Task: structure prediction
Amino acid sequence: MSRSVSPKSPPALLKAEDISKAFYYPNLVPILKGISLHIEGGESLAIVGRSGEGKSTLLHILGTLEEPCKGLLFIEGEEVNPSNRDRLRNRKIGFIFQSFHLLEDHTALENVLMPARIARCPVGKGSAAEERAHVLLEKVGLADRARFHTKLLSGGEKQRVALARAMCNDPCLIFADEPSGNLDSQTAQIIHDMLLNFASHPGKALLLVTHNGELAHLCSRRCELRHGMLYPFSRVS
Amino acid sequence: MFELSIASKYLIPRRRQLSVSIISLVSVLVIALVVWLILVFFSITHGLEKSWVQKLTALTAPIRITPTEAYYHSYYYLIDAISEASGYSHKTIREKQESKETDPYNPEIDQEPPTDWPSPDRHPDGSVKDLVKLVYASLNAIPNLPGLHGHDFELTATHIKLRLVRRSRLLHLNHVYGGTTESEVSYPAYLGNLDPDHPSLAKTLLPLDNRDMNNMLDLMGRANQIRENEQNRIFFEPAIFQSRLKHFFECITIKRLQAVATGWTIPRHLLPSKAEWDVCAVIKNEQVVKLLVPQEARQRPSLQQSLEEQGWTVSSCQAKIDGGEVSLLLPKQETQTASFSMLTLAGGSSFTGHMKASSLDQARYIDDVRFEAEIPIQGSLLKGTISYRGLEIASAEIHSSPTHRFPFWIHRLNYSDDTPTLELPKDPEIGEGILLPKSFRDVGVMVGDRGFLSYLSLTPSLLQEQQVAVYVAGFYDPGIIPIGGKFILANRQVTSLIRSSHQQNDNTPLTNGINVRFNRLEQADAVKAQLTQALKEKGISHYWNIETYHEYEFTKEMMRELQNQKHLFMLVAIVMIIVACSNIISMLIILVNDKKTQIGILRSMGASSQSIALIFALSGGIIGCLGSVGGIVMALLTLHNLNALVSFLSRLQGHEIFSAHLYGEVLPHELSVEALSFVLLATASLSLLAGLVPAIKACLLRPSQILRSSEV
Result:
């Protein structure tokens, strides 16, 4: 029997209603079955589950990277539709991936500034966006690596650049897909602290997908995706 | 604009993207090559077309107004034949224009017009319409047309005979400076009147060269020296000869002289006191009969070869000059101290020479003119005064100042491009100056050559051949129009005289008419429409036929052919650009596949699918632009060095690759603005279009799928 996790009080930073997704392999295989979800400011939500359960698919749908077959999605009360999807993704959401996904032929600073450039903000020397990028790089401890091409950085450094990039346009939501999957425990700890620190601010929230139970326990809420539905993590033994 | 910076990053060659780099480099190169080829080809053909049209309109005009059959059967034209006031003869268009009487008929004196003649066209007030003056009035009423003027033309047939007297170029023992050869050229030709104010004609004139100047001077001198057994020769009285000579040297200043082809005898007083020169000894019956001195010792083998080709026995030896005595060191022989006081400087050897103006005052012959010369021969410098005998002009400056008069050749009285005001001179002693097409120069005619224009004149009893004495005053390039090679231009009086003597029923449309000239050829159709409308309003349009230069009977085919070829080449050019740009498609498809992950990353940051499409469209555009710029630079360099390139290719092939007769002496080398705009527009739009296919492919990629598949 499916049970959805429903928020107690509005306004929600993210509200998903009855999200369903199915793929043809070549037969119709339902992946997500009517998931509803609320995330409020200051919340950090960890979604756990076995491989192939559709955690990343859910993350991409919630992050507007993929369209659900059915269901509605609201970000800060604004319904996501094809005309505002790219803008909302650019302004309200930051992504962090297990494989970092940096632009390798760009410097760390250029990577961090890219969301601002996509938003058509001025990014020249002395601009507000550039100053913010430097502040973010300093926050993640990479002020001295700003002009480095990202291909020259270590895995931990790359993920910190990715984190700074995710925060470039001051989004309200950060979606992290196994953010420390490719990192050693010490570096992973730094990334976790940063992510949780972001979510501790009012009006900001973190949604992460992980196999890491330790990280999941650090989040304010935990859910498990099983058979296309979300269950509170406490029910899992 | 982040799309542009991403696109340029994609195109910068990187080691990891070798395939993309190579293909993009090849794409740029192919486009550059195509742009280069199209620009060079179109610039040359455009330039050629422009020069052909310019030459065509130099002989004719952008628009021609010719009388129709109705004109020749009109009362206005016919009435002159029975009017005493018109001398009982038909009038030309110019005569009609200059005539004060529109209707010369006087019923009291003149016979009654035949009943089958048409009645005159009349204005509402009853006066007779002046068909010619109304045309000129319509012309003058056309507004805002720079350089517009109507000029009547007359065209007739004639026969030209020219006598060519030339100095022999072969060594002759009896004639120190060789004999003369004579030949005659005789052609049927068209004769038209020269429009002195025609700007295009001035541009087709061929400049005077040394051969022309030498020919004029030679003929001037020769006329006074050879008198026996010659008919039709013009001999000048000493005073006239001297005045002509002075006049000639007022017009030009000789800078350098050269020995005539058979060589120049070095005057004894110029010989150095001591010198040893390499010479060629010409031997006949085992006797040395002539010593030829090359200007430089290294020229001796070629001099010897040329003498041997003329059939002489030649021996290379050394001449020793000591105190005016010349001794010869022949191989295997003892030193000869012979009476070789005469040394001959090889033909073509040139040196500086400045005319002594005072010598002109006493000159009875051309050889009396004296020069101060400095002659370098094999390390010795001979200085002194010499006579003109055995010499000719190697280089001279033609005075372009309008204060000088040029009686001998066609010249401009005004150096403005719009109104050059040409003067075709009339020589009181020789005859009328005529302007010949350059085909005459190709058969050996030079400026100064004399002859006759002959025509048949009908006298009451018989048909008699008449002649007008003429001389060649210049050449022009008629381009490629069919009648160009036979079209002689003369002053109006000559054309009118010959035309009027022809039978009066010679009323073919091209024999008399009005040339309408203006500066901008592209306005020809608009001017024709305005003129036609104006003549219609005046009710005289059926008397006149108005044609633009692409409608003339003798150019119609050629103009159509030029247009067809232009369209064909345009089509080929577009196909070439399409092929070049299709390279961009394959390169960008590889690039899209290569950059899939980056597309996903950019989408995750909020880049829209349109932005992704734009990145790849811009990549195509950048390749197109780079190729175009490269091609334009290459084309500019090629056009700048076109003549050197053509002569190199000609040398490589062993013959001229572009016939001077068809394409002119120099190929056009100005970049065609039309071609440039065409190429820029075509490459920019086609490369953008080529970028569109991969761009659509890129924007259809699903970001979540890319990101998931690229996760480790």
The radius of gyration of chain B is 36 Å.
